[in-house]
Amino acid sequence: MKYLEKLKGQSDDPPSRPELKVIILSFLGALFAGAILGFLAFSLEYAIIMGSFGASIFLVMAVPDSPFAQPRHVVFGHFVASLIGLICLYLLGDLWWSMAVALAITTLAMIVLKVAHPPAASNPVAIFLVTPGWDFLWMPTFLGALVIVLTALLYHNLIPNRIYPKYW
What we know:
Elements: H1 3-6, H2 20-44, H3 52-62, H4 71-92, H5 96-112, H6 123-130, H7 138-158
């Protein structure tokens, strides 16, 4: 197959829209998780929110059966990504290529450690933009990811016929 032909795609049909009930439950779950993170951030007067958490909330609330939405992926994916971002920032410096190295190592580490969580892959980018201290690893990264998972556990398991997580 020639390169340009590959760019056309495989002509598969796009997935169908989920049932209205699933859409509403996803909406309410995202609202609940966002409200809890927001409330805690304002109450604690400390940022436990970062941009990648929006995508994490989408995964745990809209597609909770996805491997990327399982607790170990959410918590440890974020932790590993932030740790690598911080290490690269402080060892290699605040340079464009060190951010690229951090992204590549993060991708490799999440795959090898079986904690792939696509939203967390953006953490090194955020770290290079904000240049936080080492405390960023615990708050917002670890605490925020933990709050997302705990919220998903509470929310999904209150709904009949839903079980979250699929595995730890």
